[in-house]
Amino acid sequence: MAQELASKDSRVHVVHDSFATLTDSLAAMGISEVDGLMADLGISSPQIDDGSRGFSFMRDGAVDMRMDTSRGQSVAEWLEQVDDETLANVLYEFGEERHSRRIARAIKQMDSYESTLELAEVIKEAHPNWQRGKHPATQSFQAMRIFINNELGDVDDFLAQSIAILKSGGQLAVISFHSLEDRRIKQFLQRHSKGQYPEDENLPMPPNRPRYFSKPKRVGPSKAETSQNPRARSAWLRMATRTDTEYQQTAAP
Q: In this model, does residue 129 exceed pLDDT 90?
């Protein structure tokens, strides 16, 4: 779809890469500043619905979960090598899974990691506390996907680069779909709109930090939108306007 749009509109350029490459990707096109940045951090529905990509615990496929299948390690390859403790830490940190150690032990007892449905079933059987209306493997699948794609690291890199890339008055808009992403965006905009950094809280005389963004706004989906698209129910859009404060490269992101 994107390639088709680019073929019809010379203003559209398709770059097959991560948000983290923002500065370099724009520089390759001779662009150093922009009037607006819009990032949709969600997985596309076609990716979820394609069982072969490995994102879904409802459709069988290879345990892959890479956003870009042309590079990097698949989840199956990682599971073959990782130890119980590291796996449990990933499930807890990136999936906020309270039963991470129990689930990690069950996963590591599997003979192979060739089927997403088999993996989901093992997690389901190991999970002691099912939440109504939510598959027990939801948080574990999320955690492994986020980890294998370095999603949170890429979000941090994108946000940090947005300060220098946006012109004065430029708009930053980011859509997130889970609390780990949304929390990062919220904290980033709070720091750079208030000039308040966590590391300054206990200082008797906090330094005067630059304020790169106006007071941010947050918008959620309407009932009409979620009725038409249930996957939008967890989405949050955070927006802020770039101030005219000159970017100081030495300031913490």
A: no
Judge contact between 148 and 75, C-beta under 8 A.
yes
Specify the range with the lowest mean pLDDT, choosing from 62-71, 134-143, 225-234. 225-234
Tokens of 120: 């989901």
**Alpha helices (H) along the chain:** 2-8, 22-28, 45-49, 75-81, 84-95, 100-108, 116-126, 138-148, 151-165, 179-194, 223-228
CA distance 91 to 8: 43
CA 142 to chain centre: 10
User: b vs e for 100-112, b when ≥16 Cβ sit within 10 Å of the residue's Cβ?
Assistant: bbbbbebbeeeee
Residue 6 pLDDT class (50, 70, 90 cuts): confident
Integer Cα distance of 135 and 69 in angstroms: 26
The answer, yes or no, to whether residue 205 has pLDDT greater than 70, is no
Based on the structure, what is the number of domains in the chain? Answer: 2
CATH number of the domain at 163, please. Answer: 3.40.50.150
What does the DSSP assignment read for 206-251?
A: -------B---EEE---HHHHHH-GGGGG-EEEEEEB-SPPP-TTS
- Domain extent, residue 118, equals 45-148
Whether residues 172 and 234 share a domain: the answer is yes
Cα(198)–Cα(188) distance, rounded to whole angstroms?
Answer: 11
Q: How far apart are CA 104 and CA 144, in angstroms?
A: 11
CA–CA distance, 115 with 59 (Å, rounded to integer): 9
| pTM of the full structure | 0.87
- Mean pLDDT computed over every residue of the chain: 91
